[in-house]
Structure formats: structure tokens, C-alpha cells
Specification:
This protein is mainly alpha-helical. The protein has one domain. The protein has 6 helices and 2 strands. It has a two-stranded antiparallel ribbon. Helix 1 packs antiparallel against helix 2, helix 3 runs antiparallel to helix 4 and helix 3 packs parallel to helix 5. The longest helix is centred in the N-terminal third of the chain and has 20 residues. It is globular. It starts with a helix and ends in a 23-residue tail after the last helix.
Length: 158
């Protein structure tokens, strides 16, 4: 397991828990992504948790390429048997779709400000079933509506 990657992941999560000012977090995210790129290029991903941690850091990116990279890394963690990465694979895919203006598949990642409410769920592909969501460790759609998902706060929006 890459200890350097573990430290980067812990910093990433701490920035979000501590409510660091958003411009500062964005700059720190950029530096972390650059360091993760270096770790990947050096062949530093060895176990499923490494892929998961790298995926989470790329999930906090600023461009489609970052979100797709996060998705690919999360899928590799899943392929290596890390069940916790299933949710992240779904979340990264939803973010990638949303940033293209497309409906999300699972409905877990992306909320946007609404005029008359604090947040509303971004459009979702109606063909995705709750059974399919469950395969990826995603809650049923009825539990993902704004106000029912406590993990997402406006400070986490990019």
C-alpha cells in the first residue's frame, strides 16, 4: 500500500471535513492530483485501496478528464475486490455525465442550486433501477432526494 497516497487521501478528506475555504481547497486539490499523477506514472498503485484513494482525489477534480480518470481508477479498485469502491465508481460516472449536461445514471453525486430550494437533484436517467443502484452500493432513489442525503453539503460543490 502506498503510504504517500494514503497521506494525500487523508488530506483530501480532512479539507472537506474541516470546511477549509473553497479557493484554498481547489488549489490543494490541484497539487494532490499532480502528486497522484506522479505516483501513477512511477507505478505506485499496488493494491485496491491505492486505486480507490487515487480515484477519490481525482473525483475532486475540475475537468471531465479528471472525473473519467477517477471512474477508471475506481473500477480498477472494484476489479481488485474492494467493495467500497463500487459506490465511488458510480459517483464518478454520475459526475462525469453531469458535467456534460447529461442525466446521471445512479443519482448520487450531483446536486445543483435550485431557485426556490437550497438544492435539487440533477436529472437522472429513468431507466436505471434501484436493483442496479444496489449492485453499486447506491441507496434507492427515494433515499437520495435532497434533504435525505446528509453526506453532501453545499461546501462540497465544485
Amino acid at each position: 500500500m502506498s503510504q504517500g497516497l494514503r497521506a494525500l487521501y487523508e488530506q483530501d478528506q480532512a479539507d472537506r471535513r474541516e470546511g477549509r475555504p473553497w479557493p484554498e481547497t481547489v488549489e490543494r486539490d490541484r497539487a494532490r492530483r499532480q502528486r497522484v499523477e506522479e505516483i501513477i506514472a512511477a507505478g505506485g498503485l499496488h493494491v485496491a485501496e491505492d486505486y480507490y484513494r487515487a480515484a477519490m482525489i481525482f473525483q475532486h477534480g475540475e475537468a471531465l478528464a479528471h472525473f473519467w480518470r477517477a471512474h477508471e481508477l475506481a473500477k480498477q479498485a472494484v476489479a481488485l475486490g474492494y467493495r467500497k469502491a463500487r459506490w465511488l465508481a458510480a459517483a464518478t460516472y454520475d459526475r462525469w455525465l453531469m458535467w456534460q449536461g447529461q442525466p446521471q445514471k445512479y443519482g448520487i453525486q450531483s446536486y445543483r442550486p435550485a431557485e426556490d430550494q437550497p438544492w435539487e437533484l440533477w436529472k437522472i436517467d429513468p431507466a436505471t433501477t434501484d436493483a442496479e443502484r444496489a449492485e453499486w452500493e447506491v441507496k434507492p432513489l427515494g433515499e437520495l432526494r435532497p434533504g435525505e442525503s446528509s453526506w453532501l453539503r453545499p461546501a462540497h460543490r465544485q
